[in-house]
Amino acid sequence: MKIYWDTDTTELTAKQTALLDRVASAVAVHEKILDGYVASILFVDTSEIQALNRDYRGKDATTDVLSFPVPETFTNLSYPTVDTLENNNATKAEKTLGDIVICMEIAKQQASEYGHSLERELAFLVVHGMLHLLGYDHETAEDETSMFSIQDAILEGLGILR
What we know:
- The protein is of the alpha/beta class and 162 residues long.
- The protein has one domain: Metalloproteases ("zincins"), catalytic domain (Collagenase (Catalytic Domain)).
- The protein has helices at 14-30, 46-57, 104-114, 118-133, 141-157; strands at residues 2-5, 37-44, 65-69, 95-103.
- Helix 1 (14-30) packs parallel to helix 4 (118-133) and helix 4 (118-133) packs across helix 5 (141-157).
């Protein structure tokens, strides 16, 4: 599993990036995703995530994370995708899972509200976003229980606790 970072807007330290790469890899291992898959993680501000949420989900509100899985085609996105990121070394043999969009401002707020580190919050958002790329959802109570138990297992397995 390879992650492409939006390096133009990423506010992450090298230590945070390494942690989130490890988190994404843990999701891949848990879900038995073989090598050759890629995803991008992009960081936007509150106004951009609100616009994306409004335009693609019909919810005119800010949110912490959005996932845009492939093969769905979102041709009018205003942010870079895996195919357009600078330094993209993806080959035709790699299969794109999609894009995860995180609002760093909201991640920081939530970390403070929940009383845990920004790293823990970002790890949660990456796991959550990755699972959405893989088809998990939490629209029903049953789906939520399933998805959230997987999230918890992955984070606990990495020793990332609240």
